[in-house]
# Entry
Amino acid sequence: MSAKALFALAPLALLGASPAPVDRPGASKDIAGACGPRDGWSEPAPPAHIHGRSWYVGTCGITVVLIETDAGLVLIDTGPEDAAPHVLASIKALGFDPRQVKWMLSTHEHFDHTGGVAAIQQATGARLAAGAMAAPVLRSGKAHADDPQHDLLLAYPMKPARVDRVLRDGAALVLGGTRFTMHANPTHSPGSTSWTWQSCEKGQCLTIAYADSISTISSDAYRFTDHPKRVDEARAGLRVIERLPCDLLLTPHPGGSDLLDRLSGKAPLTGPRACEAYAQGGSERLAGRLAKEAATK
# Structure
């Protein structure tokens, strides 16, 4: 499916909500142009408006999302540890005090997405909520033994962070009237998690789905065909993503969903069946990986 078809403009729903502020002087109107060909995990990017009270404060290669609620800010992911100062600077550039960050959430427990959790937690005093599989990794900074990337991740330990709340699948963190629902989808890692919340702007509301990574990559020696339980979990996680309420798709790597172009008005921001198509891509990659392993057994 082409990017144009995938992100064709979809009508917004749930009319009648109060308008939300969308103009902040520090927000870029062309984050795609600012990054250009740069997509490094720690490559600085200007902050950008997503929709309603949700903002992009990540790098050119890693998505970090800031959501304003009536009781403070929520931050989802941080990027790697050396990106933490940039994330904090982007929060300030939007006119927020980083100490307004009350809660932190995460997609998956790898250093490129959560390596900066401890540093930002220390700078903001924010509490951290995580799923049962991600929580031990965030607390210890050490990769989960069942993670297909475990051997690779040994070279990239994270600083231990304080986990204040462990959420079960389907549970929600509610702050200032905004409900962040957790969807466990262990495709990319054992603790992979997607988040959904409602976003309203100019009397129109939609559901934002921050869907976790759909790739099934691993350390060199790992074979998925030797771990049927992991394959079943990966497939189940893809089904979760496929069924997410998903008016506006965000992904941990912006390139995974043409996100920077969409935030810059160079591609439609929303699209029908975006999460379904995103998950289908993961299913195809997993099938290809299994076929390749079977052929080389």
Observations:
- The chain has one domain: 3-295.
